[in-house]
Amino acid sequence: MSRFASLLFVALLAGCAAPSFVATVSVRHQLPATALKASAPVASGSAAAVQAAMATPKAFAIERNASQMQSLAYKQFETDLASRLVQQGLIWQKDINKADWLVRLDYQVDDGKEKSYQQPIWGTVGYSVSYQRVFTNGGSVMFIPRYYPETGIVGSQTVSETIFTRELFVDILDRKTLDKGEFAKLYEGRARNRSHSDELDSAVPLLIQSLFLPFPGPSGVSREVRIPLTTPKP
C-alpha cells in the first residue's frame, strides 16, 4: 500500500470514530486563584496584587447590551454561563450594582468561506488471477482462471465546501475598577469552532462548555478542546 493510500485509510478510520465538537480556546486572565474552586496559576506582576485583594468568593452579574435585553436565546446562554461560574465558587448576583465582577457574553457566526481540495477517485486499477484445479471425467487436470479486480486511486476531483466560523466571547471585569475609568479586565476568553453549519443554537452551549475545560485555563495560550457528542454533530 502506498504512503498516500495509507494516510487516506487512517483518515477514513478517523472519520468512523465517535463524533466530537472541536473548539479552539484562547484565554488571557489574571483571575485570583483564591476566588475560584479550581484555577490555573495567575500571571505574575500586577495579578499578584489583584489576587491578594480578592481572597474571598466574588459576586458576578451578567451585563447585557441593548440587543441582548429581549433575546430568549441570549437568556438561555446567559443562564448556562452563570451556572458554570457558580460551579467555580462564584455568586450570581442579578443586581449589577451589588456585583464585584461584570461578565459580558457575546457570540457570532460569519458568512462562511469557500474551501476547495482534491478528493481521490477510486476505481479498478487491474486484476489479479488465481487458478482452480479441476479434475475431468477422464481423469485429466484442468486449471480454470479466476479474476479478481484490484481497486486503487485512479484520479482526483475538486470538491468545494463552505466552512462557517462560530465564535463565543466572554469577558470578566472588576466593576469598581471599571467605575473609576481604569483598566478593569480580569478575564478574556474566546472559543472558536469551524463547521459546515452556520447554526448557533446548539453550538453556543458547547462553546461555553469548552471555556470551562478547564476554567480559567492557562493564560496566553491557545488550545484545542474536544467534546464527545452523542447526537449528530452540530
UniProtKB/TrEMBL annotation:
Coiled coil (residue ranges): none
Signal recorded as keyword: yes
InterPro entries referenced in this protein's UniProt entry, alphabetically: DUF4136
Keywords: Signal
Limits of the DUF4136 domain: 53-217
Keyword Signal annotated: yes
Signal peptide, first to last residue: 1-22
Name this polypeptide is given: DUF4136 domain-containing protein
Organism field: Deefgea tanakiae
Upper classification of the organism: Bacteria, Pseudomonadati, Pseudomonadota, Betaproteobacteria, Neisseriales
